[in-house]
Amino acid sequence: MQDAARSQPPTIDEATAQSPHDANAPFVRLWQGFLTGRVLIATALLLLQLALLSVQPGGNPLVWLVCLGYLGLTLLVRLTAREQPPSARAGVHWLPVIGVDIAAICLLQVLQTGPLNYSALLAIPILISAVLGNLTLALATTASVTLLTLGWVAWQDLAGRIESTQAYYQASFACAGYFAVAYLTHELARRVRRERHLAQHSSRKAQAQEQVNALVIRHLGEGVLVVDPQFRVQQANPAALHLLGLADAHALPLALKEHAGWQRLQDAVAQSFAQNLPISAAIHLQSIGQEGMTGLHLRTWLTEVATPSDATDAAEPALLQQLCVVFLHDLREMEARLRTEKLASMGRMSAAVAHEIRNPLAAITQANALLAEDLAQNPAQQQLCRIVGQNAERLARTVEDVLNIARAQQHIGEAHAGLLDLDQHVAQACQEWQAQGQPARSIQLLLDARARTVVFDGEHLRRILVNLLDNAQRYRSNAQQPHTLQVLTGAPAAGQIWLQVWSDGAALEPTVQRHLFEPFFSSESRSSGLGLYICRELCQRYDAGISYQRLSRPAPHGPVEGNAFSIVFRAGAASALPASLFDQIVV
């Protein structure tokens, strides 16, 4: 679990979080460098005393004690100091560093018996305070060094060891230089710190923007590819990889030349590079692992990005590389989206038109009933009246279905369901469907529902079955061979009752299967794409389910793969069926 968590990319909050350690990284290195330098200086002072001992035997033993003590204290501070420098404010926490340095150097200057002058080493605590501390600490350290320097000159003057005027001038100039160095060094460090913070702030904003862009592209519905002039895909989101038939975790970069089915995509990118213009076109690709072609709408956009240069000169301008950003849309999804929008805009109009049809249709039905009474003695005219009544009733059911779909009121309680003998109704619907075809249609019936009944409306079951049979007839291999189109029913003793329409048509593409029961989605431009959607809605109204499977069925020459649409019914008591849909007229 921990390894998986570490492998995840940083979140936006992590990218924008400020790390004090990162902000003070240069000053942390300076702090460590100062501590190491103090140890080296203390070691050098001790070695210097050894060298002086060989030249001038004797000497003050206190000098040795000061050098050894200074070396021990610097080593102790170097080994025990924290990684981060102390607070920049003036305080006692600076005594182990600045205080020890000033005290040790001053003691060496006072105790030395030779001509050596250690006052130049006082610049070290001044630099430490100016770089790592605030201005108060820097000026206080410099003032302390100034007072000690002037005090030492005054003491030497009183002892008559130096020429007073020249020594005072020299000490004054040195102390003025200390103040100048302290102030300028502190301002330089402050500017470096400010520029560091600005750079880190810009870096955090860039990282956050990069995280947002990656998040948007990763969850974008359309495919996005970034292709270089060598036709290598440098970046791709999961939607684009899916359209190409690749896994979401496929390694990048990948070459468009790897798969022959991507040739048209490569040609479009090459055309965009050659013309140096964005293009928009419809292409067909063969995705990996799929037999058919996938229709895509392609848009390209050219951009230039800076690439790292091998030049050592920082002033050398960055090299620019032209890239092509490709946006891919599935044409079927675009068409389905447009049709769905049309359906939404037509919904209210369909409901209004259906309401307007119901009233005159009710009047036609009533007039037809009265006419049938007047023509009771004429059998031929009675037959015509019955035809008018049956078609008016069927039209009323169609109007009711349109109203239910438009209002999204496909509920079981509103359906006029009854108990149907499945085998009987399926056989009757298949006979009617065969009789309507010219030339005659062949079909193989394998009905084995064992006289079981299902909760469904007979007209709706006929409509579903006719729709499925029309689709199977369109895609079957041979309309004259009954085994190429089979209708089956079954009712296991302990299972659900089912109906299946099977044909030996070609396999459906995975992209088609995902949207098979959506409205206005069809693999053919001449089809409205509503047939299977209405079948699903009607099945859901009666708590039934419809699904698609690729199944193998026996044939005279062996098993054959085909497309099967299966419906699973529910069993139960029938709801009350009204005598007519016109018992209640909506005005």
Automatic annotation (TrEMBL):
InterPro entries: BphY/WalK/GraS-like, HATPase_C_sf, HATPase_dom, His_kinase_dom, HisK_dim/P_dom, HisK_dim/P_sf, PAS, PAS-like_dom_sf. One of its GO terms (biological process) is osmosensory signaling via phosphorelay pathway. It is an enzyme of class 2 (transferase). Residues 352-573 form the Histidine kinase domain. SUPFAM superfamilies: ATPase domain of HSP90 chaperone/DNA topoisomerase II/histidine kinase (SSF55874), Homodimeric domain of signal transducing histidine kinase (SSF47384), PYP-like sensor domain (PAS domain) (SSF55785). CDD domains: HATPase, HisKA. It comes from the Bacteria. It holds the Pfam family 6TM_PilS. It is a multi-pass membrane protein. Its EC number is 2.7.13.3. The chain crosses the membrane at residues 35-55, 62-81, 93-111, 123-155, 167-186. It catalyses: ATP + protein L-histidine = ADP + protein N-phospho-L-histidine. Gene3D superfamilies: 1.10.287.130, Histidine kinase-like ATPase, C-terminal domain, PAS domain. Keywords: ATP-binding, Kinase, Membrane, Nucleotide-binding, Transferase, Transmembrane, Transmembrane helix, Two-component regulatory system. GO terms for molecular function: ATP binding; phosphorelay response regulator activity; phosphorelay sensor kinase activity; protein kinase activator activity. It is found in: Membrane. PANTHER family: SENSOR HISTIDINE KINASE GLRK, TWO-COMPONENT HISTIDINE KINASE. This is histidine kinase. It comes from Delftia lacustris.
